[in-house]
Each structure stands twice: as C-alpha cells, then as structure tokens.
Amino acid sequence: MTLIKEFIFDPPNFLYLIFIFVLTYISQFYFRYFTRQHPIPGPIPFPLIGNFETYHPNSSQWARELQKKYGDIFEVYSGGLFTLNNRQIWISNASLTDKLLSPYTNNNFPYRTTENEGLDKMDMTSKGIVFNRNVNSWAYNRRIVVQVLMAPKFLKTAVKNTEELFFEMEKHWEKLGYLNDAKEQEIELDLVNWMRRFMTDSVFNLTTNTKSYALLNYFNTFNTLNKDERESNNDHFLRESEKFVNYIRLHFVACIFFKDTPKILRTILPANRKKSRELLDVVAWLNSKVLELIRERKKEIEKADPDEELSADMLTLLLTINTNRDPKYVKTTDKDNLIDARPMSEDEVRENVYEIMGGGIDTTANTFCYVVYYLTHYPEVRQKMLQEMEKIFGKDMNREITYEDLNKLNYCGAIIKEVSRLMPTVSVLFRVSAKPDEIAGYKFLANTQFFINVPAIQMHPSHWNQPEKFDPDRFMDSEQQIPKNALLHFGGGARVCMGKQLAILQLKALMVLLYRKYDVELVDMSGGIKYSSTVVNHCEELPVKIKVKHSA
Ligand code: HEM
C-alpha cells in the first residue's frame, strides 16, 4: 500500500498519471464522437467545451455561418462532461421542418426542452404552456388560453386598450413640454424605452384589468421638477407596481438561469447559490402577489350579479372558463371530455398569467421598433401604408380605431411580415423528439434537441425571390406562393405563438396611431439597428424624432 502511495505521489509519476488520465479522456471522447450513431455534418467539438460557437451570444449569426459551411442540417455540441449528450441539430431549410412543425398535438416533437431539473424546481414543467412537458396538461392549458386570447370580446378590448394607452403616452410627451413648447412640435426620444413601458401597461391591463403604471413611472424619471405632481400619484403604490413589473422580467431571467445552470453549479458556486436564493425569493414574492390578485378577483366574480357582464380580462376569463359564469359552458359527464371541461386551478391560472406577461411584452415592443426602423428607411412603403390608412380612416386623425378597421389593413399586415422576415424578434424555435425519428434521411434517437434556424430559413434563396430585398408586396401578391414554414416569426405547428392575433392587432393599431398623426425619423439615419441577440433579438435603442404633422 505504501509503495503504491509513494509511486502515485512521486511528482514525476503524478504528472505522468494525470497525463494518462487526460489522454484517456480525450481518446474516449473522440472515439465516441467519431463512432457515434447516425452522424451529421458539423464542426468537431472539444472535450468538456463542445463547439465554441454555442457560447457566442448571437446564435443566428454563427448558425448562418455554419449553414453555409455544412448545409441545411448540421449538428453542434454545447459542452459538458459527457459532451455527446448535448447534441443540437440545427435545421435551416423549411422543407425539413414538416415533422417538427406538425400541427397535430400528438406529434413526435411535443416538447421545447429535454428533461430539466432547474425548470422542475421552478414548477414549470408540469404547468402552464411554454415549458410544460406534460403533453395533456400543456394541451389543456393551451386550448383554454387560446380560447381566451382569440375571443372577439377580448381582442376588441385589446384594441380599445391600445388606443387609450397611446393617448396616455401622448399626454406624457406633451406634459414633458416636448410637443407643446417646441416650435416645430418635434420631440426626440428613445422609442424602445417608451414601447417597453407601453406594452407592459397594455399586457398587464389585458391580463389582470389592473394598472401597472409603467408609462407613468417612466415619465416620472424625466419629471424630476414637478415633485407635487409625482407625490399626488402616490409614490408608494407606484413603487409596488414598479417592483411587480421588474419582478415579472426577473421571472424570465430565473427561468433561463434555472434551465441552463446545472444543479451542481447552482449549489456549489457561492455566487450562483446567492443568485438562486434571490431568484427564488422573487418567484415566491410574485406567487403570493398573483395569488392575492386571483383570490380577490374570485371574490368579485362570486359577488357579481349572475346577469352582470364580467370584465374581458385574461384573469377573469381564465377563472370563469368551464364554470357556470362561462356563457359557452356545457356540463359534461363524458369521461373523455372531463379533463377539458374542468375549471383551471389557481396554480394553473397563476402560471398562465406569468407566461402571457412574459410572452407578450418585449416581443411586441421589439417588433414595433423594427417596423418603425424599416419605415424610416423606405419612404415609398410608408407612403403606400398611409394611403391604405387614409382609405379606412379618412383624414380624421382622431377617428376611433376598431377591431374591424384593423382587419382591413392588409398592407400594414404585409409590412409586419416583411419586417419580421428580415428581422425576426424570435430567432430560434426549439423542439425535442419524444420517440426515435428520421429527418432528411438521418436517424435520431428519442430526446434529440432540434433548433430551427429562423433567420436562415426566412432568407433562404430557395424559398424567396431576392431574399435580401425589403418588399412587403411579396405578401400582397397571391401569385407568389410562400413555401410552407418559410415564414416563422410566430413559430409554427402545434406550438405556434398563441398571442399572434393579439400582437398583429396591437402592432397595426400602433402603426395607425403613430403614423396618421406624426412624421417619424431616426436621429441617426446612417446607423443599423442596434440589437443584442440571444433567443429574442432585443432592440437596444431606437432614438427617433417625432414631429406632429402640419395638418394635425
Ligand atoms: C410580435 C409579438 C410576438 C412574437 C414575435 C412572438 C413569437 C413567438 C414565437 C416565435 C413563439 C414560439 C413558437 C414555436 O415554438 O413554434 C411563441 C410562443 C408563444 N407565445 Fe408569442 N410572440 C409574440 C407575441 C405574443 C403575445 C402577445 C402573447 C400572449 C398574449 C404570446 C404568447 C406566447 C405563448 C404562450 C407561447 C408558447 C406557445 C406554446 O408553447 O404552445 N406571444 N411566440
């Protein structure tokens, strides 16, 4: 025994053993890599690290470079001790997405992530929609939330709400003295900052029928002079609402942190332990606040007269669906329909409320900024858009906007599509296989992760004529068939975005409200869009000059 110890701890021998260990590890790694089942082209990974590209934040950029080198289907590895377990298959051609984006809820790619202990800890893999891996529960939640989001009453309320909030935002601009005092009635502002607050107030109000005061709080950061006005707005209440809004964002940060940080790193590293604790505190605080909101609303519903029309916000609709306050409710004893016909639990309502808030705020705010950016660069498109608006609203810049009006704005719809084709707000779609399968002649095991490369597909020369050209008319021309799954800015298949109709309505309403009354230019016309890219392309800033039109 002593002899063995002496041999091992003798410095030259010790180094030699380490060398042997590393060599064995590397050899077995590459042996496993080069003899892997069903190989696909792709860059060779490094032990422990995987492919360096996967650490680069701008995934759409490196994925397009790898597409050029390896073709429309390639594989990369994202690191870890047993790297070959973290295989990612990137798909960059619409014709290869048929199975992945199948519309059937029982398709072979029902999950967005592989099993994930971190998301389990966040209680997200068996509730809600976005990360729910329990297919029955996901389908139940999705069916109910879609029913709410598509209800004409809800969509009409959303149009009204967008209009009212826009008027509020204009009042803030005016109060700041920009519009009233400036001779040319011109203001300069960072549009993305205003739009984030705008969408926060909008989605919060549509979800809970209460105010989040994000626009007012933002206005107050400029309004340092007018202290009396600030105090009359009840600072304490505003602080609480600001906390709520910030925590909803942190909830998203928490999801990504728990999803991507292995348990061992979360528990061993002191900085991560602290972060885990802080994020879990955020989640606990939010849970208690949302549950408070839910219980208050339940009491209001119980107290309401049976004939009284209830508010059309998401919370009320989720709490009443499949109850006797639901106008479409039919009591069923049919065993197969029983799951669908039950009301939602408080926990389910809570999770859906978070997800709607998380899914609907930044996405729509960013997309609107990209629309504005493109319209400033293409005056002929802007002109054509104004003509379409004039046909519907006439010259009255204050005429009320209705849901029916917005549905007639086809060219505005085409602009949104074309902007989102060139600058998709969400750049990757995730799918995971439930069973072994085959795509493009390659066989895959169950639990394989697929990453659908949205920018590459939306610019693919075999799907689009002159893919680099900004041309909204390509969506007006019925002759020109857009290949299936070539436009994926809202995703596709069974997990397609559920807020799509709502987002399009809100974007069109914002286009009308801004452009019929104002001329909008970029402060710096020569610069490109400033954005950072992870899964969501976040607009970093968009300084614009907004000028009241002379005839206003
Ligand atoms: C312009 C705005 C928006 C964009 C660009 C956008 C984009 C997307 C994309 C790309 C997906 C993934 C779809 C897939 O994997 O195939 C998605 C999913 C989702 N979106 Fe949106 N979205 C927007 C607005 C909204 C709004 C307003 C809401 C809610 C009110 C919302 C709620 C959701 C939800 C809940 C999912 C998950 C669906 C599922 O997993 O079944 N989104 N969205």
Automatic annotation (TrEMBL):
<feature type="binding site" description="axial binding residue">
    <location>
        <position position="497"/>
    </location>
    <ligand>
        <name>heme</name>
    </ligand>
</feature>
<comment type="similarity">
    <text>Belongs to the cytochrome P450 family.</text>
</comment>
<feature type="transmembrane region" description="Helical">
    <location>
        <begin position="14"/>
        <end position="31"/>
    </location>
</feature>
<dbReference type="GO" id="GO:0005506">
    <property type="term" value="F:iron ion binding"/>
</dbReference>
<keyword id="KW-0472">Membrane</keyword>
<dbReference type="GO" id="GO:0016705">
    <property type="term" value="F:oxidoreductase activity, acting on paired donors, with incorporation or reduction of molecular oxygen"/>
</dbReference>
<dbReference type="GO" id="GO:0020037">
    <property type="term" value="F:heme binding"/>
</dbReference>
<keyword id="KW-0408">Iron</keyword>
<dbReference type="InterPro" id="IPR017972">
    <property type="entry name" value="Cyt_P450_CS"/>
</dbReference>
<keyword id="KW-0349">Heme</keyword>
<dbReference type="Pfam" id="PF00067">
    <property type="entry name" value="p450"/>
</dbReference>
<dbReference type="GO" id="GO:0004497">
    <property type="term" value="F:monooxygenase activity"/>
</dbReference>
<keyword id="KW-0812">Transmembrane</keyword>
<dbReference type="InterPro" id="IPR001128">
    <property type="entry name" value="Cyt_P450"/>
</dbReference>
<protein>
    <submittedName>
        <fullName>Cytochrome P450</fullName>
    </submittedName>
</protein>
<keyword id="KW-0503">Monooxygenase</keyword>
<dbReference type="InterPro" id="IPR036396">
    <property type="entry name" value="Cyt_P450_sf"/>
</dbReference>
<keyword id="KW-1133">Transmembrane helix</keyword>
<keyword id="KW-0560">Oxidoreductase</keyword>
<dbReference type="InterPro" id="IPR002401">
    <property type="entry name" value="Cyt_P450_E_grp-I"/>
</dbReference>
<keyword id="KW-0479">Metal-binding</keyword>
